Amino acid sequence: MTPRPAPRRRLRLGGLRTRLLVAFVLVSLLSAGAATALAYREARTAIVHRAQNAALEEFRDQVEEVARHTEVPPDGPALTRFAEDVADGLRDGVVVARYHDRTASSDPAADQTRVTAELRATVRSDNRLAFQRVEHAGRPWLVAGTPVVYDRARHASGLEVFAIVSLEPEQQDTAALLRTVRDGVLPVVGVAAVLALLAARTVLRPVRDLGRATRNLADGELTTRVTVTGRDELADLARTFNHTADALQTSVAELREQEATARRFVADVSHELRTPLAAMTMVCTVLDEDADQLPPDTAQAARTVSTETAKLAKLVEDLIEISRFDAGAAALTPHETDLADAVRGTLAARGWTGRVHAELPPGVRARVDRRRLDVVVANLVGNALRHGAPPVTVVLTATGEELSLAVSDRGPGLPPEAARHVFDRFYKADTARTRSEGSGLGMAIALENARLHGGTIEVADRPDGGAVFTLRLPRRRGARCGEDDA
């Protein structure tokens, strides 16, 4: 049996390796994305809150410090000085001070619309520090406001102060953090892909070993086993495979032993029957010769016994012959032979010369076993005469590489099912037919003899009806039909 070629190892779409790789990368990508999003959100919140708390604390302390040195109610210059003093202690902040309808700013050019009416109302109504984060001109700002309250009075003085602090540095820090994390995702996914390939290789190695072992087992290598490693599901599968292979090997060994025993039994019985059958055949020959001198019923019985004895002798001879093939004891005795003469001799010996049309060109010679060639030709022609219809034709042709002998008839041909089993032992195309003139081994013996010569026998239907059996023999000794010269 020709070993099957090992499948090529390649990354196939939809294959197990591809699916493992895609799943691993997707899980890694999702995990990295989720972790990155959570880390970014927490880091951004922490940075903004820290900056916001620091700015509010700084603003509150600065307002309390400056308010101790400010008289209320302040006039215009005092209100401006108050805003500038508070702004001096803040980080790049703009301070807006309000006292009733009077307003002053540490930066007169600053846009005061960032101090919203809502924040002003909150500061005034709640009488405490309040803040908002606003977007202005595409930049983030922290706007905080507080009333100026003197400890002794414990009431609002009417002086309110607002600080506008930029949060752009914190925004830049969080943006830089996001870029850093984002740039790190691709290498992480790449490493995950490599790890996925390594993991897939580790997981798929036992699967490949099982696949290879299964193919070897299917090719007839019943001793094939796989190495069981670990205690996972794949190890269980490998262990099950080995148990199955053990059972299969045991069953095949038992079947082969039974088959060998049966063949030995058939061979032994055939040999044991050979001697008494020879004696019976001689007695039947004498009875046949004297049948005309016997009473009619006795003569008929004698002829019947003689005919059945001849069939039994033929069956025994065929069983002995097929046993030689099974035992590998069949051997060729080749001689240089004129094939046309050999075929004519076979037809003449069996009285078929007048019933068969033969096209046998002269000069076609080959080294063949004359006796085995006679068996092949006799079986093919006899089969055509018994089961086909006239005219039966034998055509010998020769090419540079092989010889062919085609035996055809004009009968109904062979059904496909019969064509597949015609060389099986004891095969009967018509199951209702329990007995035939032959032993049921003739075609099997013919094929074995052809193979012994390195040839074969092919069967086909003729286009215009009938069956044709073609014996093909190689002209070159040691070659086989169908083999290339290369």
List keywords for this structure.
single chain, 486 residues, alpha+beta, five-stranded antiparallel β-sheet
What is the gist of this entry?
The protein has 486 residues and is α+β, with helices and mostly antiparallel strands. It contains ten helices and twelve strands. The strands form three sheets. Strands 2-1-5-4-3 form a five-stranded antiparallel sheet, sandwiched between helices. A five-stranded mixed sheet has the order 7-9-10-12-11, covered by helices on one side.
Low-confidence spans: none
Give average pLDDT, whole number. 83
Beta-strand content estimate: 15-25%
H/E series, N to C? HHEEHEEEHHHEHEEHEEHHEE
Instruction: Work out the number of β strands.
Output: 12
Amino-to-carboxy terminus distance: 21 Å
The order of strands across the largest sheet is 2-1-5-4-3
Can you give the helix content as a percent range?
40-55%
State the shape: rod-shaped
| Count of helical regions | 10
Sheet with most strands: 5 strands, antiparallel
Radius of gyration: 53 Å
Q: Structural class, from helix and strand content?
A: alpha+beta
Q: What does this entry look like structurally?
A:
- The protein is of the alpha+beta class and 486 residues long.
- It is built from 10 helices and 12 strands.
- The strands form 3 sheets. The chain has a 5-stranded antiparallel beta sheet with strand order 2-1-5-4-3, sandwiched between helices. A 5-stranded mixed beta sheet has the order 7-9-10-12-11, with helices on one face. The chain has a two-stranded antiparallel sheet with strand order 6-8.
- A hairpin with a 6-residue loop joins β4 (139-149) and β5 (156-166).
- α1 (16-67) packs antiparallel against α4 (168-218), α6 (296-327) packs parallel to α10 (442-452) and α8 packs antiparallel against α10 (442-452).
- The two termini are 21 Å apart.
